[in-house]
Amino acid sequence: MSNTTTSRSEPFNIGGITLRSALVHLVMYGAAFLFVVPYIYMISTSFMTQQDAVAQGMNWIPDPVTLGSYIQLFTGSQIIQWSINTLIISSLTTLLVLLVDSMIAFALTRLEWPGQRYLLALIIASFMVPGFVNIIPLYLVVSDLGLLNSYLAVILPFAAGPLGVFLLAQFFRDIPYELQEAAQLDGFSNFRIYTRMILPLSKSILTALALFIFVWSWNQFLWPLIVLQSEAAYTLPIGVVVLQDNFTYQPALTMASAVVASGPLFILFLLLQEQLMTAVEMQGVT
Amino acid sequence: MSVTDRFGGVVGKLSSDSRSRREFVEGVLFSLPYLALFGVFLLYPLVMGGYMSLFEWNALAPAESVFLGLENYTTLLNDSQFWNALGNTFYFALLTVPSIVVVGLGLALGVNRDIRGQGFLRAIFFSPYILTVSVAALVWIDMYSTQYGVINYYLGAVMSNPPQWLQSRLFAMPAIAMTTVWWLVGFSFVILLSARQSVPEYLYEAAKLDGAGTWRQFRDVTVPQMRGAIFFVIVINLIWAFQVYGQPYIMTSGGPNQTTETLVMYLYQAAFNQRNFGYAAAIGYVLTGILVAVSIANYYFLGGDNE
Q: Nearest-CA residue of chain B relative to A281?
């Protein structure tokens, strides 16, 4: 409201300002509408009957609304098992990444020992080689370790990525060293400095990193597809694709599975969108 | 660059011999868990991939692998399916990366204006990025459907012969690219928006005083000020584009007539369908080479900017 009134109070610019501003609003909200069309299609189709979903013409509002596809999905597929698998894998990956990455970032920035500089350079250089480019030898390693079809097959290679180390090292080194010195004079061990000082001071970045890792590992596709070969071991992203392959064209069912696969992350996004976008921004700042 | 250089003096004053020995032990202990993962699951496969690419690799009995030297690589040079996949991957990058940068920048500049519901719009444009590739692809398969799809339903109203999208040799890759732009642009959008918001406002005031219009402000203030973020967005999207796999795998299986088969799809096929691990490792190394070249090019472009 206030925007309109201010522009109205500038009589000489009425045409210019309001027309331009109206145009900007039109374009931006038009774009936003196009962005949500796929969501509307996905959600509305998932509540349709099978016949309505493939009917000629376009009906955006399901009539009648039915939970048939969801019931069929939960009773006729292993989607509950896949959801559990995905949840466990994402949660454990997130915890592992936070733990090991914060430990090494602490050692690389807050302790003084020879070789740390080269180590940091090596880890950063590995950014250039995205983990799964060398999926063949990685597959053989995981297979030799007897990890195929297990959660660890997905978790461990993911946790080897350098992103978290890099982000945390950047953050840790900006924490004032005077604090650490004072703690050392008080007889704090380095372990206590890590747990009592550095970690609590880094809550914001740890939260952002955790969210990003969680979403990212939830959504992984190629690697789980390779190492999770039995249907009971699938994650949601793999499961929903296999499900769609197995059925003849049943859009209502496929869309219901898509809603289930993305629903938890959407809820997470609605609750914590600021932190999640902060995690993205941090990568741009580097 | 180095933390030790910057702060070594301060910490150094406190250290004695025994303390620095203890710090060394602690440093190693704190680093060990990550380094174990890094070594086993990143560094070793990287080196091993190069080694395997020199062999006709026998997965069941590695010791019996046949040494080929560079033969896998020379075979690649004459492998038309490899060149097709490489070409398709470049084509995909060409279609997606500029679009993502332009759309992302456009949305960022739009949201940055004096507009209602800024936070709402920001969330909407970012949101597809949190979907898994499977969901993005499955929804768009239905929307592209020539029989039941939304897109051709509305296009059919304005044109008599709408494209066959995923079934068409001409339109399959652009269709996959369009899905990809929708799916991934949110990441770049958020970064560009944040970069735009940190451009000092007085630069625009000064430009206006000099009589610069919207276009001149964009060209002489916005773009140079956002240069770092734009480069970052280009590079990260190039890196993603060269590794594209999920979208074509789910949406077209590489068809029609292998017009959407990408490098990673071909690598996957060589490894897990033909069981030709050495050859697949060679493809992986070519891909790694491309990605390293992209990163190095970026480093040189940006190098002058950081100093």
A: B191
Helix (H) or strand (E) holding A194: none
Question: Residue for token digits 């997606």?
Answer: B96
Q: For the domain bounded by A78-285, which CATH number is listed? A: 1.10.3720.10
What residue has token string 């069981």?
B275
Q: Are residues B105 and B137 in the same domain?
A: yes
Q: Is B186 exposed, middle or buried (0-12, 13-18, 19+ CB in 10 A)?
A: buried
Q: Beta strand B55-56 with B66-67: parallel, antiparallel or unpaired?
A: antiparallel
pLDDT tens track for B139-156: 999 999 888 888 988 888
Residue of chain A nearest B263, judged by CA positions:
A133
Domain range for residue B41? Answer: 3-72
Among A35, A119, A133, the residue with its CB nearest the CB of B124 is: A35
Prediction pTM value: 0.89
* ∠ Cα B163 B164 B169 (to 5°): 100
Using a CB–CB cutoff of 8 Å, tell me whether B135 touches chain A: yes
ipTM of the complex: 0.88
Give A-chain residues touching B15 at CB under 8 angstroms.
112
DSSP letter at B273 equals I
A65 three-class SS: coil
Q: Rounded to a whole number, what is the distance in Å from the CA of A114 to chain B's nearest CA?
A: 7
B124, B178: one domain: yes
